[in-house]
Amino acid sequence: MDRSDADLIAAVLGGDTASFEPLIIKYSPRVFATARRYARRESEVEDIVQEVWSKAFHKLNSFRAEAPFEHWLMRMAVRTCFDFLRSHQRNREQTFTELTDSEHDWLERFAVAPADRSGDAAAARLLVERLMEQLSPSARLIITLLELEDRSVKEISQLTGWSIPLVKVRAFRARAQMKKCLAKIGREKYV
Amino acid sequence: MRMNLAALQEKLLAVARERPPADHVPYAFEKRVMARLASAKPEDLWSMWGSALWRGAAACLTVAVLLTVFAFAQEQASSATNLSQVYDSTVSTAADQLTDSW
Lengths: 191, 102
Fold this sequence. Notes:
Low-confidence stretches of chain A: none
Order of helices and strands of chain A: HHHHHHHHH
Strand content of chain A: under 5%
Number of helices of chain A: 9
Mean pLDDT of chain A: 87
Number of strands of chain B: 0
Helix content of chain A: over 70%
Helix content of chain B: over 70%
Distance between the termini of chain B: 90 Å
Structural class of chain A: mainly alpha
Shape of chain A: elongated
Number of strands of chain A: 0
Oligomer: heterodimer
């Protein structure tokens, strides 16, 4: 019989470490999907998710059953992903002259017919990844949560631990940063 | 040819939303996590105490530096006041002497 999350957590806190494994099996897909938004390499993704589970295990005694375990775990996952972004800030000043042919073609097609939906989706996704890599860690986190995962400001505040006004300010700045990066495409490609 | 950047941004975000990242879990991932948890060293109370002491020492040092700077600034302000008083008394003494000599 499947044990509930509460039973498994109680068992782990009581010293039965093996009871943690069913929680890992149950919630890892969601954690992996989250981590894949922030890291490209699969090795980095697995490192992030292992770190999330390690933190969850060591801080399990701080879990209050006021909200579902999944919410508590996802908060930890988002914050771990943010720490990863901050520790892996690369030189973000890459130019868009390094675009592949398919990305160039996608942009050309967009410039001619913006409403055309038949473009190469893979090329568009590569462009999005490049764009996201240009953003600061907080901008990237906010854009991912707000625009890609369609979360509310209140949810983002709960996930990140930032106050609601701070989330709003960062969202405003993140959108401005994104527009600046896109303007760079326009300058490099068409000037 | 100029591009509508707002439309470009919206279109790129829409494409990213359409296909969320995969949620597959690598084979035997949970075994690796459990092995990592089992091999982690148990928390050493003495090293935790030591790191807490270091943090306390850093906080005390910061407070000490701030108080020193504050005390130094106060002293500078009071010596500046003394200088102005000395100047005043010098000038007024000189003026009194001039008056007396007339």
